[in-house]
Design brief:
Strands 3-4-5 form a 3-stranded antiparallel β-sheet. A two-stranded antiparallel sheet has the order 1-2. The protein has a two-stranded antiparallel ribbon with strand order 6-7. By secondary structure, the chain is an alpha+beta fold. 36% of the residues lie in helices and 20% in strands.
Length: 264
């Protein structure tokens, strides 16, 4: 009976097939494998309006140079809260043409979404969505940044748009963070305000507290210290019997009287 190799050779019209199945691996190894897929960019020549064929990190750097800054020109004013911000449309409209010019493509390649039902302060039912999006940034040559970038976004919606809104927020975060995009707003360090000294509390304002029977010994010591720090130990106050007495002496006297009374 012929071998499997011989029968396969006969079926293929070959007469010199190996006689032993043990020789089959060697025969298979000698068969050339499939030709590698041609490089689609091998013969590509950029046109007048096509991006320069540079690595992705260089192309992204050029995007950052062209964008430079996005100011917070939009304002939210509602519910007693007001603040300036950079909206999704503003950021995408700024980055879109620039990334196109430099051949940068940004693709969401993984989305992890979480949802929960919630209500507003007025009792309206809303759907909250939080997403974590993994992004791939591809350059004009088809190469990508070495790691996937992840950003998170949150959104509320009363219908079915919460997930889309949250993804848009995640994209805005990617562009602003990955682009290190400044606002060119006024730097808080550009203004300097001298902090004034706290006004000195006059000695007469301590009088009621000094003579009050519930004022503790610890508080009397603190009052004496404050009067000393402000140079008012010698200020004259009207004591319990209507006589004038130095503020420092009054504090010490009343403190001793209360200490003696407590000991008795």
């Amino acid at each position: 009976m012929s071998t499997l190799t011989e029968r396969a050779a006969a079926a293929a019209g070959r007469t010199n097939a190996p006689a032993d199945d043990a020789e089959l691996p060697a025969v298979l190894d000698s068969i050339p494998g499939p030709a590698p897929a041609p490089d689609p960019m091998a013969n590509y020549e950029p046109g007048d309006e096509d991006p320069e064929m540079v690595p992705v990190h260089i192309a992204w750097l050029r995007v950052r140079k062209d964008v430079r800054a996005i100011s917070k020109n939009e304002q939210y004013n509602g519910g007693g809260t007001r603040f300036n911000f950079r909206g999704v449309d503003t950021v995408v409209n700024t980055f879109g043409p620039v990334t196109l010019r430099h051949g940068i493509n940004i693709f969401p390649v993984g989305i992890d979404a979480e949802h929960r039902d919630t209500t507003t302060s007025k009792g309206n039912k809303m759907r909250e969505c939080t997403v974590t999006v993994s992004w791939m940034v591809m350059g004009p040559k088809g190469d990508t940044l070495p790691a996937l970038l992840k950003t998170r976004g949150e959104a509320l919606d009363s219908a079915d748009k919460g997930t889309a809104k949250a993804q848009s927020v995640a994209l805005r975060v990617l562009l602003l963070t990955g682009g290190l995009t400044p606002t060119h707003d006024k730097d808080p360090d550009s203004s300097h305000v001298e902090r004034g000294e706290a006004p000195i509390r006059p000695a007469v304002q301590y009088l009621d507290e000094i003579t009050h029977p519930q004022t503790s010994a610890g508080r009397l010591r603190q009052i004496h210290y404050e009067l000393k720090q402000t140079g008012q130990l010698g200020a004259l106050l009207t004591n319990e019997v209507g006589d004038e007495e130095r503020a420092g002496d009054m504090v010490v006297r009343i403190g001793k009287e209360r200490a003696a009374g407590g000991a008795a």
